[in-house]
Amino acid sequence: MPLLVMKFGGTSVADLERIRNAALKVKREVERGYDVIVIVSAMSGKTNELVGWVEQTSPLFDAREYDAVVSSGENVTAGLMALTLQEMDVPARSWQGWQVPINTTSAHSAARFVSIPRDHLDAKFAEGFKVAVVAGFQGVSPEGRITTLGRGGSDTTAVAFAAAFGAERCDIYTDVDGVYTTDPRITDKARKLDRIAFEEMLELASLGAKVLQTRSVELAMRYKVRLRVLSSFEDTDENSGTLVCDEEEIMESKVVSGIAYSRDEAKLTLVTVEDRPGIAAAIFGPLSEAGVNVDMIVQNISEKNFEGHNVAVTDMTFSCPVNQVARAQKALEDARASGSIAYDDLVVDTDVAKVSVVGIGMRSHAGVAAQMFSALSAENINIKVIGTSEIKISVLIDRKYMELAVQALHDAFGLHRAA
Ligand code: ADP
Ligand code: ASP
Ligand code: MG
């Protein structure tokens, strides 16, 4: 029997009426002859509420209990979805991660898949069930504890099931009708893409476009899953939404295909650090041990006169998520107190955002950076840090200009027009 994976995000299961609407979409696929694995998120806002409760109860919480609490939102929607389908005479049953089992590593709150054995669910389909509803975002560790996959992780659950069960397609139903040239909440000129290459989607996701979790795109690329993003609020058919696919399947060729942003960034500068071999390791080692996700790094070498001698010094600037600043500060201050690094000052700017332009066309076209910088300068937006890779350019700017920067770049690269 051909099999589909259908994933419904938080807004798509936000209340009983929406669960019913999603269930009708599942029923339609069953009537077309598919077995379906449905992956559900928690009702929108639920996971945030659960995270808040954990943080209020225990600021330095035990990660195992965090996962026990925050995974629970998905358990509720999985059961409700199975009940709704049963009321529609669709043979359905729900499963939590540990029941499948969805085996993961024991990295609580950021676990990764180890295996999803098929035998149990295969036997259930053979018994006559048409739909297996699986709670997204969660799994079970080798120690038998509940784990979660990181925020937005239900997308990754969906792709992992599509890969494990050889699904014909993995459909991600959400509150937008596809992947756009940029977040349609930021500009109404954003244009829906019919197709987007895995590499571009991977960059957009990792640079902040939360329409798909980064890891889900990685898995889809690795296991050749046909991944589609589409609206749960509109009538859809096999041509709806955006297909994430190989570059070769894409006709449209623009140099820049999308713009992503990440609102909550921080910039930290260690002023006057001694410039010697090993200094970067002495700074970034403790940051990594403290769990700080360092993103962009810039080093400016200069000279300083010290007791009559010129010595090479450097200012080391890096960025990280704003909610990790306290941890970063503590790690650096501890390293300074232990004597492993020395610096004059630590300057922290918590009001920055990152805006990035992405496109596989950049591999073969020069001039994108210059065009990007002049578009920002025309709006008087100052660039604080620049980072590049083969198919993206990112800049760190003041957060208050973030929307303006996205809109200006969207216009400058003509993204509202089809290629
Ligand atoms: P779900 O709850 O269904 O998982 P998310 O809120 O995680 O949904 O992701 C969908 C949201 O992603 C959209 O509402 C949109 O605001 C945002 N988004 C960011 N960038 C893009 C983009 N390039 N294309 C479409 N949506 C985007
Ligand atoms: N409910 C989880 C979250 O909000 C997982 C998901 O929706 O994908 O992060
Ligand atoms: Mg999501």
Give a verbal description of the structure.
By secondary structure, this protein is an alpha/beta fold. It folds into two domains: 3-250, Carbamate kinase (3-Layer(aba) Sandwich), CATH 3.40.1160.10; 260-412, 2-Layer Sandwich (VC0802-like), CATH 3.30.2130. It is 33% helix and 28% strand. The strands form four sheets. An eight-stranded mixed beta sheet has the order 3-6-2-1-9-11-12-10, with helices on both faces. A six-stranded antiparallel beta sheet has the order 14-15-13-16-18-17. It has a two-stranded antiparallel ribbon with strand order 4-5. Strand 17 and strand 18 (392-398) form a beta hairpin. The protein starts with a strand and ends in a 7-residue tail after the last helix. The structure holds adenosine-5'-diphosphate, aspartic acid and magnesium ion. Adenosine-5'-diphosphate is lined by residues 9-12, 41, 152, 174-176, 179-180, 182-185, 204, 209-211, 258.
Q: Averaging pLDDT over every residue, what do you get?
A: 95
CATH topology of the largest domain: Carbamate kinase
Oligomer status: single chain
Number of strands: 18
- CATH class type of the largest domain: Alpha Beta
Bin the strand percentage.
25-35%
Helix and strand arrangement:
Blueprint: E1 3-8, H1 16-31, E2 35-40, H2 46-57, H3 63-70, H4 72-87, E3 92-95, E4 103-104, E5 113-115, H5 119-127, E6 131-135, E7 138-140, E8 146-148, H6 154-164, E9 169-174, E10 195-197, H7 198-206, H8 214-223, E11 227-231, E12 242-245, E13 258-274, H9 279-289, E14 297-306, E15 309-321, H10 325-337, E16 345-358, H11 368-378, E17 385-389, E18 392-398, H12 402-412
Parallel strand pairs: 1-2, 1-9, 2-6, 3-6, 9-11, 10-12
Antiparallel strand pairs: 4-5, 7-8, 11-12, 13-15, 13-16, 14-15, 16-18, 17-18
Helix pairs in contact: 1-4, 2-3, 6-8, 7-8, 9-10, 11-12
The structure holds adenosine-5'-diphosphate, aspartic acid and magnesium ion.
